[in-house]
């Protein structure tokens, strides 16, 4: 064997650099430099996300829109504790429709209703908005109402959906604020988010003199013969501090002290054979 082969040298060895300490240090320097660049890029990205997420001082939206706004919002008011107010435009209400009567403030009664007809709690804004549009379409086309019947609707997501709002009378009694829970509470339990949303909505109304300081909460079934708002929701309502036991055994009819009729009339057209049939067959808030 030739001398170069015995010494372990060949053409391949000559093409590869020796594995010296200097070369190892050079490779480590390259690796550390790459890691350092990735860290710097990550920090810069984090600062950018923080900068774009939180509004600057001149862009903070006024908190006067709704009571105790506890989060920044560029378009949607917040009642506090995460209860977002979904306005008519946001859930897709029919344009140009509204109830026929003005709602005078402050309002002495809060009337609790439900949808009924085996309706489950809607779980998110998308499903609840579809349900709101369906309710409005049915109220106008099938029940001959001029708009969705209640003032506000509370979804299973804990958000408050604007029906007729604070300034237009509902379809049940024009001296009350009708709040509809979006489900069938003869079958299903209302969740804690919904009850919290009701509390925050009422607090906003009282704080802004939209409700009387001694406003009373009553169930729809206390004012007329109906299964609304369902026994499971009714049991929750009776535990609220503002619940008023009018219409029960031993108590006067609801509303007599402020001149409401013995039976709270609903907003339907003048009785005819057609409208009477529509009213008797109506399934909403049963």
Total strands: the figure is 6
Number of helices: 8
The main pleated sheet reads as:
6 strands, mixed
What fraction, in percent, of the residue positions are helical? 25-40%
Strand order of the largest sheet: 1-4-3-5-2-6
* Overall average pLDDT: 81
Principal-axis shape: elongated
Structural class by sheet pairing and helices: alpha/beta
Beta-strand fraction estimate: 5-15%
Which runs of at least 5 residues are low in confidence (pLDDT < 50)? 57-75, 270-286
First-residue to last-residue Cα separation: 105 Å
Rg computed from alpha carbons, rounded to a whole number of angstroms: 32 Å
Query: Assembly type of the shown chains?
Result: single chain
Order of helices and strands: HHHEHEHEEEHEHH
